[in-house]
Amino acid sequence: MDDIINTLSEAPLFATLTPSVLNDISKNAHPNAHKKGKILFIHGDPAEHYYIVKSGHIKLFRETVDGTQTIIDVLSQGNVFGHTLVFEENTYPYSAEIAESGIIISLPLSDLRDALYNDNTIAINMLRATTNRLRLREKELEHRSTQNASQRIACFFLRHTLQRKNDSLVIHLPYDKMLLAAHLGMQPETFSRALLKLKKDTGIRIEGSSIYLNTLDRLSSYVCSSCSERFPCNG
Amino acid sequence: MDDIINTLSEAPLFATLTPSVLNDISKNAHPNAHKKGKILFIHGDPAEHYYIVKSGHIKLFRETVDGTQTIIDVLSQGNVFGHTLVFEENTYPYSAEIAESGIIISLPLSDLRDALYNDNTIAINMLRATTNRLRLREKELEHRSTQNASQRIACFFLRHTLQRKNDSLVIHLPYDKMLLAAHLGMQPETFSRALLKLKKDTGIRIEGSSIYLNTLDRLSSYVCSSCSERFPCNG
Questions:
Q1: Which of the four pLDDT bands, split at 50, 70 and 90, describes residue A109?
Q2: Torsions phi, psi of B53, nearest 5?
Q3: Residue B164 has pLDDT above 80, yes or no
Q4: Distance CA B70, CA B75 (A)
Q5: How much is the mean pLDDT over chain B?
Q6: By CB count within 10 A, which of A168, A174, B58, B202 is most buried?
């Protein structure tokens, strides 16, 4: 139980809640180990739970009537999903599949709903988080019009963990390239061509899930001239 | 003053507030008549006010360093914008321009902030509204991958005011076609070609800002087979 409360309190969404509110929302929480490929719920299912990723990766996606899949998001440790379905009589607006085996904690939306109507802090935290996500989506929509495929890949790189290693900068990709291609809404062959062009244009080196670069300037000026924000942006 | 409170209480965001809260948030409200082309604020300006459209149209947009404009939204009567900047030390994440002359009411974000921290109803209303907007954006992102330009135009048509007139169905466009093209993120020539294809494929007729169709079925099956939701959807 303490373990669940710890995981919750590490999620930015719940970080500022009092121990008593954390207790209330986690009293019916259940951690479950899931294997890659497991479907947690399908778009249109009645929404009864929301979830926190303790480990592994979750893919949120939608499918058109004629079978085309679009990835809404790929979530890692500490991310919460399904919580915006807290209002009455909702159904999930996407499907959720385990993209990399891990532990997912499920929590009843009804407990969150009670807390939401009793404690303004939760409502304000959720509003902040939803507003930030909305801005990210609006930026993504902008990039679909203003950036080419190579720039969109490089933009994803720039937003991910950067470390200094000897004389190089290293970016670690959180998950594999085919999932990344799908997340960016690209066909595998478009993604491969765009990645090749990116390497040629900016001199980055890719080894497995690590991207090496000599300076940030070359990559950031390559990407951010086609964005309305300046580097470094807030995500 | 009563006029301002009426406008506020007609906005879905504020519809469920008590008269006392409505009074609190509107005590420093100012209606202003603006001409087409007037810039209300620029992306990056410190956010001190939020706004309600009483009449006319507002275009929210962003511009990249190299000058490409992306339209975030075009808003009409009853729409509120800038309210998500209620948290401290924010700057506007887009620019706002009057797209059609009208009256815009400006209200201080500080009054909304006070009300937000004192009254859970506002936080919950704003959370509902922001969540709905987030879902719309996620659907738009899906459509950028799954729908062609003709389908995206038709999707916009289907989501706008539909009336029955003699034996036909009529859809009234809320604003002119060039603004619509920009709102959909299309170049004018792409938009014109896609509109021509749409007319040919579905038999719709366009006269000025009115679209005439014989049945909804043909248009909805043309559009919604490339969407993960069924017709009629919630926006």
A1: very high
A2: -85, 120
A3: no
A4: 15
A5: 91
A6: B58
Buried b (16+ CB within 10 A) or exposed e, A203-235: ebeeeeeebbbeeeeebbebbbebbbbeeeeee
Query: What single DSSP character describes residue B89?
Result: S
| Residues A143-196 pLDDT 10s | 998 999 999 999 999 888 677 777 778 988 888 899 999 999 899 999 999 999
Confirm or reject contact between B234 and chain A (CB < 8 A).
no
Q: Residue type at A149?
A: A
How far away is chain B from the Cα of A228, in angstroms, using its nearest Cα? 4
Rounded-to-integer distance, Cα B1 and Cα A231, Å: 44
Q: Give the pLDDT band (50/70/90) at residue A1.
A: low
**Contact state of A144 with B185 under an 8 Å Cβ cutoff:** yes
Q: Where in chain A is the domain with CATH 1.10.10.10?
A: 147-224
HSE-up of A160 (CA within 13 Å, CB side)?
Answer: 18
Query: What does the alpha-carbon distance between residue B184 and residue A184 come to, in Å, rounded to a whole number?
Result: 19
The answer to whether the CB atoms of B142 and A70 lie below 8 A apart is: yes
Task: Give yes or no for a contact between A72 and A61, defined as CB atoms under 8 angstroms apart.
Answer: yes
Prediction pTM value: 0.92
Amino acid symbol at A158: L
Using CA of residue A78, residue A82, residue A87, residue A88, what is the dihedral sign? Answer: negative
Helices B120-146, A120-146: inter-axial angle, 10-degree rounding: 20
SS3 of A44, please? coil
Q: List beta partners, residue B205.
A: B212
Placement of tokens 């321009």 in the chain: B97
Check CB contact under 8 Å for B70 and A43. Answer: no
Contact A146 B224 (CB under 8 A): no
Residue range A147-224 in CATH 3.40.50.1820: no
Q: Which of B142, B147, B152 has the most A C-beta neighbours within 10 Å, making it the best mutation to test the interface with A? A: B142
> In the predicted model, is pLDDT for residue B162 greater than 90?
no
pLDDT digit string (tens) for B47-94? 999 999 999 999 999 999 888 899 999 999 999 999 999 987 789 999
Q: How far is CA A46 from CA A104, A114, B193, in A?
A: 19, 18, 41
CATH 2.60.120.10 domain residues, chain A: 2-138
Q: Which fold has domain A2-138?
A: Jelly Rolls (2.60.120)
**What is the C-alpha separation between A62 and A80, in angstroms, rounded?**
18
